[in-house]
């Protein structure tokens, strides 16, 4: 298996894991509806933008080898999308204000940093793909 194929598959997996990890509180936390909405809406763009950019990255990773667009252009777009996703996730993570929901669900303190850390794999995979493509 070559580096391009491996980094493309890892990028798709990282994007999907980021989105699934982002949805964990929605699935596990109950009884704090208003606080959960505030949790996901924190920051200038909220968690929805992180999910959107991660899913868009997965689509671009999946379509980069289809031949419809120059792979070099898509590789550059993937690097930019990966960096933007990490920055949005980091801004969202530092914008979250603790509420009483955090007292009952202590793991939420580490949820947003975990999403940002998982999103960090996107530009790494995109960079590895671009480096191998352009080499």
- CATH class categorisation: Mainly Alpha
Please give the share of residues in helix: over 70%
Total count of domains: 1
Tell me about the largest β-sheet: none
Average residue-wise pLDDT: 92
Structure overview:
With 135 residues, the chain is mainly alpha-helical. It has 8 helices and no strands. The chain has one domain: Four Helix Bundle (Hemerythrin (Met), subunit A), CATH 1.20.120. It has helices at residues 3-22, 24-28, 33-41, 46-63, 71-95, 100-104, 111-119, 121-134. Helix 1 runs antiparallel to helix 8 (121-134) and helix 5 packs antiparallel against helix 7 (111-119). The radius of gyration is 16 Å and the shape is elongated. The mean pLDDT is 92.
């Amino acid at each position: 298996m070559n580096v391009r194929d491996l980094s493309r598959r890892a990028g798709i997996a990282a994007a999907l894991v980021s989105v699934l990890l982002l949805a964990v509180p929605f699935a596990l936390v109950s009884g704090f509806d208003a606080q959960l909405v505030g949790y996901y809406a924190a920051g200038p763009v909220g968690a929805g933008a992180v999910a959107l950019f991660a899913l868009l990255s997965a689509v671009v990773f999946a379509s980069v080898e289809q031949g419809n667009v120059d792979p070099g252009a898509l590789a550059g777009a993937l690097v930019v999308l990966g960096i933007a996703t990490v920055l949005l996730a980091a801004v969202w993570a530092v914008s979250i204000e603790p509420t009483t929901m955090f007292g009952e669900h202590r793991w939420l303190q580490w949820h947003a940093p975990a999403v940002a850390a998982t999103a960090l794999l996107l530009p790494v995979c995109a960079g590895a793909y671009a480096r191998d493509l352009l080499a």
